[in-house]
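Look over what follows to help learners.
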Amino acid sequence: MRKSSRRLVVIAVAGVLLSVAAGLTLYGLQDSVAYFYAPSDVAAKARVGERVRVGGLVEEGSVARKDGALTFRITNGAGVVAVRYEGDPPSLFGENEGVVAEGVWRGEEVFAAERVLAKHDENYMPREVVEALKERGEWKGPQ
């Protein structure tokens, strides 16, 4: 085999190996990718079975414990999503506080969250939620 033919075979094999590695990486990551939606957008934009994050403010008066699960509603002022979460909420979770619920969208009336994230300090809120609140003139945080 000539030197140029050997080089071409090595390049072809390396290309195939890189393609397989990239494919396996993307396949492995597909379950960990979660798209962020505002409460007003999730029903219209999220596909059933898709991993999503829904973020906004916990609606006042909506937090309750039913059958050992935490139920609450997330709002961005234009829409509301009811959430059910099995487990204890984060310590900073509360009414009128920023929250992100993550789970698989089933297209049901109540979003079954697998994980709930609360703000970690007084300045945290998802960028999309801040922009939506600013558009409606309801933002009370720093400009």
Summary: The CA atoms of residues 98 and 125 lie 6 Å apart. The chain has a mean pLDDT of 84.
